[in-house]
Amino acid sequence: MAKAIVMTSKDNVATALENINKGIDVELIDKKGNTLPSISVCESIPAGNKFALHDLKEGEPLVKYGVECGTITTNILQGHFVHVHNVKSDRIDIPAPIITEILDQMHYREGE
């Protein structure tokens, strides 16, 4: 089973510890290695990237490592990829062409 880590109980995203294929059940662990309830991902998630632990609504904060670090820009369903295409950073304004380039470099196609 694929693994992902949830750094704090406040987090609303998990970080993939390996490449995760669409439709796979993912074992969630906390930073101490304790097992948390697993969830299924709905898109392929590259290692080191984030996915939603539960449905996230537009306007909600993105919380990772226990810190609000961005704002959700469109509703994100549980198990979906969380990245620059659906989150606005609180720290840096990334222009749309750069977002497109980032996603192209990752070969990301929504829903895959």
What are the defining features of this structure?
Archaeosine Trna-guanine Transglycosylase, Chain: A, domain 4; 1 helix; 112 residues; 35% strand; three-stranded antiparallel β-sheet; mainly beta; six-stranded mixed β-sheet; globular
Q: What integer value in Å does the Rg equal? A: 13 Å
- Provide the number of structural domains: 1
**Helix content range of the residues, please?**
under 10%
Binned strand content: 25-35%
Number-wise, the strands total 9
Tell me the strand order in the biggest sheet. Answer: 4-3-1-2-5-8
Helical stretch tally = 1
CATH class: Mainly Beta
Could you say what the CATH architecture is? Roll
Return the structural class: mainly beta
Largest sheet: 6 strands, mixed
Give the CA-CA distance, first to last residue. Answer: 19 Å
Q: Please state the average pLDDT score.
A: 91
Shape: globular
Q: List the helices and strands in order.
A: EEEEEEEEEH
Weakly predicted, low-confidence segments: none
Would you give the CATH topology?
A: Archaeosine Trna-guanine Transglycosylase, Chain: A, domain 4
InterPro entries: SAF_UxaA/GarD
Protein name: Altronate dehydratase small subunit
Describe this structure as you would to a colleague:
- The structure is a single chain.
- With 112 residues, the chain is mainly β.
- It has one domain: Archaeosine Trna-guanine Transglycosylase, Chain: A, domain 4 (Roll).
- Helices cover 9% and strands 35% of the residues.
- It contains 1 helix and 9 strands.
- The strands form 2 sheets. It has a 6-stranded mixed β-sheet with strand order 4-3-1-2-5-8, with no helix packed on it. It has a 3-stranded antiparallel β-sheet with strand order 6-7-9, with no helix packed on it.
- The longest helix is centred in the last third of the chain and has 10 residues, at 96-105.
- The mean pLDDT is 91.
- This is Altronate dehydratase small subunit.
